[in-house]
Amino acid sequence: MTYVIAEACIDLLDQSCVSVCPVDCIHFDQGVDRMLFIDPDECIDCGACEPECPVNAIYPEDAVPAEWSPFTELNARWFTDKDSTRVAVDEWKPPA
Q: Taking the complete model, does pTM exceed 0.85, yes or no?
């Protein structure tokens, strides 16, 4: 299992979760991405990131709210196809 960053992170990009991650599995490209992403292959399921998120955007994979379930796949896809992930984020929540 892994943790997943969902919709509430879009356009917030608070990095409190990054600073507490012991394995540095939370990534984004500064100035390009609109949200942060957790690498499911690197995440050790420690949960340190979840309480640090100021908008409660981080969930254990098995507890992601149904309306945000696409974000589980989206987090993983960013690590293999950033462009299509960015398009999906823009479709999910169009830029202001």
A: yes
